[in-house]
Every structure is written in structure tokens, then in C-alpha cells.
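Quick one, T. Sequence first:
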Amino acid sequence: MIGHISKKAALNKQEATAVLESFFETIKQTLESGEDVLISGFGKFCVKEKGKMNSGVSDILSRVWNSEIKLCAFPPIMFPGG
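C-alpha cells:
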């Protein structure tokens, strides 16, 4: 991926790596702040909260399973005919 970005944007590989890392860091920080990230024509990154899951196994598992879960979801944009 770095090689492709490097060629397309006329950057050296070090610069392309910095751009890509910055891009993903920005997505991560935005999601952590509770906002969605929409990339037009591509899709939307969002955080979905799942409710508590119950297990009746042991105390340790119970604490793990009873915590709320946050997942990063990426529903892609649906293209006509695709």
C-alpha cells in the first residue's frame, strides 16, 4: 500500500508512510471522541456499542462478559448493481 501511495502521490516511501499513519491516527482519534468518519464514495467508520452479555460461568468470566463492548464497524457504501 505504501508503494502504491508513493507512486501515485509522487512521495518517497517515508513520506507516504507518514501520510498513511496520520490518516489512520486521525480516524482512530475521531472514533475515540465518539464521532463517525465518513469517506465519501467509500464508506463510514463508526463505533457501535453492544449491550452487556451475561454468562453464568465464574466470577472472572462474569466480570468480563458483563462489561459493555464497543466495536468499530465499517459498513461499506453500496454501489448500484454491486
